[in-house]
Amino acid sequence: MTIFIAGGTSGIGYSLAEHYLAKGFKVGVCGRDVSKIPENHSENFKAFEADVCDINALSSAVNNFLLNDENLDLFINCAGSYAEDVAGNISYEEAEEMLRTNILGTVNCFEVARNFMKDQQSGGIAAIASVSGILDYENSSLYTKTKRSVIQIADAYRRALKPFGISVTTVAPGYIDTQKLRNLNNNDLSKKPFLIDEKTASEIISKAVNDQKEFIIFPSKMKWMMKSLSILPASLLNIIMFRKAKWMKND
């Protein structure tokens, strides 16, 4: 089985790469900084420097990963950008980075995977969104809106690719204990409810992809909490989520 993971040089992407390598699969990853990857990997692992915002570089990385006309069995997009924008405190550069990576990058990943899979009439694509993306309210953060866009983009491609035998799984995780999350929160994750580790998250994601689930939210406690919030009136949800964001930042 051949698997390519965009944004696979760290965090959940790299954890998934290790998960599939342990099963004996051939795994390729790409990211903007391959130096973050530990050395001494097996011959089944290849890393490429490529930004999901550059569709030509991304396509070239996948093409170089697939040797001898191999099929691409699975493409997982774990690339994402996050910047805090509580009360509108966000720069143009940070906003642009989130929009490009989370929206344009998602479309690029689907397009590249589609081009490699459509002729083989098989394959699976997984997009990592966020549990926050299931909530629809006026004053949600830009990050939440971009992740909601990921969910909608994945849904559109799911419908379009189904006739070609290509499955699409959308993953909306809660808080995962990654180094990036720790860096963003000064190593204090006490305000992150229902936190799970990378290995557990990887196992949940791989099972969902293997079962060709269309949409998965995890962990279950976060899933039911967010679903409960989603039925509240928009005005009340606005207040609750804004106060929650301010509390998390100790403002």
Automatic annotation (TrEMBL):
Keywords: Oxidoreductase. It comes from the Bacteria. Pfam families: adh_short. The keyword Signal does not apply. Signal peptide: none annotated. One of its GO terms (molecular function) is oxidoreductase activity. Coiled coil: none annotated. Belongs to the short-chain dehydrogenases/reductases (SDR) family. This is Short-chain dehydrogenase. It comes from Chryseobacterium arachidis.
